[in-house]
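Here comes an entry:

___
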Amino acid sequence: MGGQIGGASYDADVDLDGVASLSGLSATGFSAGFFGGYGVASASGVYTGFELDVIGENADAAARIEGEGTASVEARHSIGGSLRVGGLVSDNVLLYGSLGYQHTEFRGRIRGAGVNNVSDTDDASGPRVGAGVEIQGDSGWFMRGEVTYTAYSSESYGDLEVDLGATRVNLGLGYRF
């Protein structure tokens, strides 16, 4: 189990019923959270394990609506689980890949003089893949670096369809019992 800090970058493609589309909208921000799981390494150095995580985020993006106000969206928090498979490249270094699922809550806001001030939350989920490295210390403590990508399911809001993906880069410190 341990804690991690890092950054998140979200990319969105938006389509308005085939009439107009926007590609490459992005939001970036800080992330921090906790992870815990169980794993074992075989005598031949093959590692398998499972891990759960909880992440708080503040990745946000805002756009100005000409003469009306602003629209913004913020990633708030995520929970996820992953299967991790890898190999020991030395007695204290593990390289691994991960495959899992991520669920994230978002808050959208529209504010301005010409519109009603609206705030709402919504959730998105999708498969997550990643890769990382862990360096084990002598006393049970370990450090790690990890990169993951989540491909969220498409969300529809009337005639508006949003395709969303997120890349996260984390550094962690943990303890093996």
The CA atoms of residues 149 and 167 lie 4 Å apart. The mean pLDDT is 89. The beta strands are 2-16, 20-41, 46-57, 60-65, 69-90, 93-111, 118-136, 141-151, 155-157, 160-175.
